Amino acid sequence: MPQLLKRKLFRLSALFEIADDEFVSLRDECSVVKRGIVEQLTSGNRQLSLDVVSLRQLLDTSAIVSEICEIAVEAGFNFPPYDPEPDDEDYHQTSDLLNMCRIAGLQTIEEFDTVLIDALPWSEEYLLAQFQAYMRLSAIQQGNWHVTAAFICELLFLQARAGFFTLNQLLLRGYDDDIATRIWDVVQSYRHAET
Q: What is the residue extent of each domain of the chain?
């Protein structure tokens, strides 16, 4: 191999080594941040700012989120098996939920929890209405609406903070037309039934 090519190869190898070290360092720092957030949540600190990391940790550790997910299962929703290492889809859905929180003006974990606590009295009936609408309009009548905790929270936030959202926002966020319309119709009809 010519000396010039060897030298470039060695330099490239050194860059890969530096990049690998930086990725390891970044992963370790992320773990420290996550542990710190979990410790703060466990100690009762609800004034944490909402961000993807704090929200993801809350979704994984919150008793209220667990209770709401149990209600969703009773309504017919299916959850994937728990995976302690969230994948890109988990972060995408958490990011979607975070964007909804921002649109609704929520800034802290406490504000997020308050919305969910306030939703508890009507969540069973509402989630059942969403699931029944899915069953009526779904081409697959098998009851296999696979969801995540983040998505169930999105459904509840759409109802709890309906004044902040529109059908068009769901469509712009990437919802399929039929799904967005079905979900929004339930939000609107349920809202009208309450008032």
A: 1-45, 49-194
Q: What is the pLDDT of residues 36-68, one digit of tens each?
A: 877 877 788 778 889 888 898 889 888 999 999
Give the residue-averaged pLDDT of 62-85: 88
Query: Do 97 and 150 meet the contact criterion of CB atoms below 8 Å apart?
Result: yes
Per-residue DSSP letter, 162:
G
Q: 147 CB contacts (<8 Å, ≥6 apart)?
A: 72, 77, 78, 79
Residue among 170, 185, 157, 180 at smallest CA distance from 98: 157
Q: What integer is the mean pLDDT of 171-194?
A: 83
pLDDT, tens digit, 9 for 90 and up, residues 127-136: 999 999 888 8
Q: In the block, which residue shows the tokens 């983040």?
A: 150
CA distance readout (Å), 161 to 38, 101, 156: 27, 9, 8
State how far the Cα of 97 lies from the Cα of 151, in Å rounded to an integer.
7
What type of residue is 58?
L
Alpha carbon of 38 to those of 13, 14, 54, 56: distances in Å?
A: 38, 36, 8, 10
